[in-house]
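Q: I'm writing up a methods section and want to include an example of the input and output format. Could you take the sequence below and give the corresponding predicted structure tokens, formatted cleanly so I can copy it straight into the document?
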Amino acid sequence: MPLILLGIALASYALAAVFYSRHLSRVLGLNPKEITPAVKNCDGRDYVPTRTPIVFAHHFASIAAAGPILGPTLALIYGWGPVWLWIVLGGIFFGAVHDFSAIFVSLKEDGRSIAEVAKKTLGLAGFFMVVAFSITMLLLVNATFLNATSMALTSVLSLEQLGMESPPAGLFHLKGDKVQIGGIASMSVIIITAFAPLIGFLHYKKGLPISYSSPIAMAICALSVFVGLIQPISLPPLVWVIILSLYTLLAAGVPVWILLQPRDFINVHLLYAGIVLLMVGVCSASLNSGHIRFPSHNISEGTATVGLIWPGIFITIACGAISGFHALCGTGTTSKQLKSQGASRTVGYYAMLLESLMACAVLGIIIVGLDFVQYKELVYPASGQGNPILAFALAMGQGLHQGLGLPVVFGVLFGMLLLEGFLVTSLDVAVRLNRYLFEELWQVFWQKPPGFLMHHWFNSALAVGLMFVLAYYNTVSTIWTIFGTANQLLASMTLLVVSFWLLNNGRRVWYTLIPACFMMVTTFTMLIILMVSRYIPEHNISLIVADSVLLGLAVGMVYKVVATLVSLKVRT
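A: Here is the clean output for your methods example:
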């Protein structure tokens, strides 16, 4: 069954990539010959015309993050049937449309962010609401990924779970009877980051062809894993939170070609290899084991554990189907790097399909690698905090063992490297995006903002400081649901802004307006449920405040949209 599910998903994505994306290109009015903002406004810091494969690598590594791994893992409590269905349909008709259209509109508007496009289509009030909402959502994204990264880098597994009596001589460091899997990923992250400026210099300053830089990047990835096996790094979670905060501060302030772009380019080779390995694991394990021990539907238990399937499953899956965070990446950094308008389809639509395919592969590896009892013990234990990161890694290890006969530890290690690679590449770009948004926000309050408020280091430090505080006082599972809600609500806002842009330019809007309305109703409902059933009874002040802000901005956005529609009707 997992093999069939993956095959149907792959065929559906291929058809959508060829036919539906081409149709959308005609609806949007794509013109490959039109000059892009990266070429017109090249400044060597933010506007940097870059070859499409490198932009695709940067964009995909940035948008994927932990979402297509953590989302399906958490949502599988509802059973694999509804989760698979929403990932496939949502990815094709919601997520990929959202990403492609947002990047295209940004290109048409001189590389402006979705908030600045909102200013043109919905006025100053719409601009303020989208900026404020985006900043709030990004803070939740950053805090979630910061905690998830520190959890991954400090993860341990027992020798029994890894199917080992003793570790190979000279490899792995033990903590009691546990292997420091996270310590291997930690060293890999450090080495890849250290080599990033070199790759950036060779590519941007020396013009090194991709045919040379790609093998170099693969060699760096291999070296990082090898050194990690020999010398893993063991640090407390709080220390990692501090180190990562300092790294993201640096990455948000320096030119994009020094850290952000080359680090993503190096790391994406591990990510591509991981996705291929995931799919091979699902196919081989499905053929060898012949059956799965996971329910196709488990609505009643899912409802009791997470909440009603609507809106719960649409919020929990998050990035694997649609994500507002993608619009921030696409209109914040990606649109400032594309050399041709035609690349917006390649990078926008295809990257989302690849992420959605990855979410399907994650679903497949979990239902072949774990039985339902194991899954619940790891993700939703009765007596404590679940660890979906560990559940995914262990499922990958056991799936590859069943399908290819590889040692369980190999798959676990690769699963952790895959997850960690996505987390760090999204964390640094999200902080940079928050920097951009703060710079835009100050211009709402002041016609000529004080100089220090517009300095990139000040806004980078502000974004990092707020991220650190929110992460310090909340765990991944505590933040995930409201993060998912804010993420999907931002996606609906983005689609509304795009719809108004299309309307103003005399183009059809149903392809973006229908997903926008569905996600707005779904996420608005979830915010009310979270406030009433969870945050107020638990007296969680920080999340009560965040939920209230998001609700207020959502109500304001709906009011502004309706008022603008009435105004347009009166004028016509």
